[in-house]
């Protein structure tokens, strides 16, 4: 594990010099790696952000996972299965990235199921129809791409590298969602109505995924100075809106915002204000599915205890066997 700032000074290192080196690395747009000295605040911020990101990937398996058994065809079932499995993979990369900062994966899981750490507010909304699967791919994975592409240039190496692969998969997820919706829009009136209804329910919560408005986002400036974050919440939200409007037109759905219009002067779309009190409510645990999501994660963790015990016992047995083989070879070598 890399030394923290406090340990560094205890070891008599020149903390001012290390700090200068850190700042210079950031200024040159180079990467901070696990072995490098870093300020405690930088480490804490990253652990919090990466853990929250990992939790979101894992909790995010639930709303869509609910549809795996009910997908309307074998093809859709296989696609959805692969997509949900990708999200599990993203969670695992990210927990590993957090471990390079000295975090303990078991502690992070405890923090999630005990409600001490958060995950993206978006996964607290229900998925009553199959069109929700398409709209999640289109909006939620689309918003994830807007958020995560700049993270490929994040100053912390392991996080940035994990994002490169994650983003490739997210882009596939988005296209599968959009393709699903295109198919439904070519179907019956009932299917088209189902798509529009899902769009109406997911649009505003998707805009909230970028976090509160910039004026109300106290930690953003520091994260930007450390080059963890590259764009503000409002910039990313704007990027998402600009990207999604033409896609909605092509699909033939209406985004549920009467204030949405192209602003020639700004070269961007103007749009209405999300209900920030709803975001506050959902983040603080009072969304439509918060209790269910966390309790299901807790149950999965408890039901998986025997797997963890078996894996630990197996690893111990393997280690003992390797040790035994090494000892026998040594004895035989000495006898020969
Ligand atoms: Fe993901
Ligand atoms: Fe995804």
From TrEMBL:
Top-level taxon of the source organism: Bacteria
Protein name: 1,2-phenylacetyl-CoA epoxidase subunit PaaA
Organism this protein belongs to: Streptomyces prunicolor
InterPro entries: Aromatic_CoA_ox/epox, Ferritin-like, Ferritin-like_SF, PaaA, PaaA_PaaC
Stretches the record annotates as Disordered: 310-336
Bias-annotated ranges (Low complexity): 310-323
């Amino acid at each position: 594990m890399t030394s923290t700032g406090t340990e560094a000074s205890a070891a008599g290192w020149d903390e001012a010099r290390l700090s200068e080196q850190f700042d210079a690395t950031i200024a040159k747009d180079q990467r901070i790696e696990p072995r490098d000295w870093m300020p405690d605040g930088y480490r804490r911020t990253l652990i919090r952000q990466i853990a929250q990101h990992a939790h979101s990937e894992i909790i995010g398996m639930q709303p869509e996972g609910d549809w795996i058994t009910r997908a309307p065809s074998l093809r859709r079932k296989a696609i959805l299965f692969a997509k949900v499995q990708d999200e599990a993979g993203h969670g695992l990369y990210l927990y590993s990235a957090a471990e390079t900062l000295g975090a303990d994966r078991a502690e992070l899981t405890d923090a999630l199921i005990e409600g001490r750490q958060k995950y993206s507010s978006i996964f607290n909304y229900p998925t009553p129809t199959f069109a929700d699967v398409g709209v999640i791919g289109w909006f939620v994975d689309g918003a994830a791409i807007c958020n995560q592409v700049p993270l490929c240039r994040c100053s912390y190496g392991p996080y940035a590298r994990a994002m490169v692969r994650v983003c490739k998969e997210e882009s596939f997820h988005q296209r599968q969602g959009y393709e699903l919706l295109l198919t439904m829009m070519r179907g019956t009136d009932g299917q088209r109505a189902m798509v529009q209804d899902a769009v109406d329910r997911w649009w505003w919560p998707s805009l909230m995924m970028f976090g509160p408005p910039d004026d109300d986002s106290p930690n953003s400036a520091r994260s930007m100075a450390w080059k963890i974050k590259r764009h503000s919440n409002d910039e990313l939200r704007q990027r998402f809106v600009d990207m999604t409007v033409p896609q909605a037109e092509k699909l033939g759905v209406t985004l549920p915002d009467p204030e949405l219009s192209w602003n020639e002067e700004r070269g961007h779309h103007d749009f209405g204000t999300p209900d920030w009190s709803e975001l506050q409510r959902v983040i603080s645990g009072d969304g439509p599915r918060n209790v269910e999501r966390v309790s299901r994660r807790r149950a999965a963790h408890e039901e998986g205890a025997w797997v963890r015990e078996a894996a630990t016992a197996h690893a111990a047995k393997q280690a003992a066997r390797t040790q035994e083989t090494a000892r026998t070879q040594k004895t035989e070598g000495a006898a020969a």
